[in-house]
Amino acid sequence: MSDSTVPIDDSWSHDRLPPNVDIGLQTIIAGQHSFKRFYCQQEKGLTIGAHCSMNHVQFAIGQSGRVQIGNYCYFTNAVLLCELELRIGSYVIIGWNTTITDSDFHPLPPAQRILDAVACSPIGKGQARPLLQHAPVIIEDDVWIGPSVTILKGITIGAGAFIEPGSVVTHDVPPQSRVIGNPARIIGTNT
Amino acid sequence: MAKSARTVPEDWYPGTIPSNVKIDDTAYIETAYSFSRCRSQILPEAVTIGYGTSAYLGTMFDIAPTGRVNVGKYVLLNGVWIICDHEVIIGDYTLCSWNVVIMDTYQAPESSSQRRMMLQQISQRSPRNLEAMNPGKPVHIGNNVWLGFEVCILPGVHIGEGAIVGARSVVQDNVEPYTIVAGNPARRIKRLDPIEPIT
User: Fold this and answer.
1) pLDDT score at A177
2) Is A106 a residue of the active site?
3) Which residues lie across from A179 on neighbouring strands?
4) Would you call B184 and A160 a contact, using CB atoms and an 8 Å cutoff?
5) What values do phi and psi take at A28, rounded to 5?
6) pTM
7) Would you call B116 and A91 a contact, using CB atoms and an 8 Å cutoff?
8) 3.40.50.720, 2.160.10.10, 2.40.30.30, 3.40.50.970: CATH of A18-106+116-186
């Protein structure tokens, strides 16, 4: 169901959804700032399945970014930063203040970073930025992600994994495993 | 002390503070929005906030119907998310920095299949709150504790009197009194002298 006139369900906001956002039946998007940083130009930039609850989630999606979310997901105050691709399965829970990104946003080599700093500045208006490598983030079904978690570029989190609060995920997480720490390490399995 | 649901003077948020939240007359609450996720209705005193305590913007009491939160005297809650299904106790003179998470529950069952059932039930509910599924593990934070910014306190943790938790630490195990812990997961890095004189 694509309907650009669906209001965002929130007590003090009545903004309209951007036209390239597709949401399923009984999915709720609440929050004033959800689309403040939504610059996506893709035809289907953000697709959310049915029965999801997106409470104060920030969809910070760049021009070429695409975000796909399954059914029955429950996100609270998560920040989704996407320049390429973010694929989230069904029955995924994400806690408060968690950030997921598929980009580093700036190049690693120092010389290139100087060019980027200039291009990003008010002086470098219109100047092309150095090309960046993005890598898709994939979160499979039934994953639980706690508050204050950071998930970095190129990560795949396997089905049923349990990410403890405050973890910084720098490597792929196998299905059904439980991780904690910075960097996140496996501490057990989930059934 | 007001006994019914009440508003905060000059609040930007139109909601009210529930009647079973007991706030000392000397305490400061910046906005009633802090209680917008407070769903505790069973207990007559679901939340108590003591003498000289302050709760600033960003502080959220995310409390299930069975939850009870007890905040002591002179406590600073500078943007703290308290997620409670059962019991959270914060002692006197405790300082909590911004984006601290104190949780006695994961708000979801451990097993994926049970989580699926819970999420299906939530989608039929209005408002779509997560409700207590498992009994929470009480979190007790002692007197005179200092929690740095973005610290996470996990279910069941007890933090002893006078302890310091470094910024961005994730506390999984109990913290002894008068120690400094830091890291993710947190470990002890120093002991403090409880009787060091004030100079």
Assistant:
1) 96
2) yes
3) A163, A186
4) no
5) -115, 130
6) 0.90
7) yes
8) 2.160.10.10
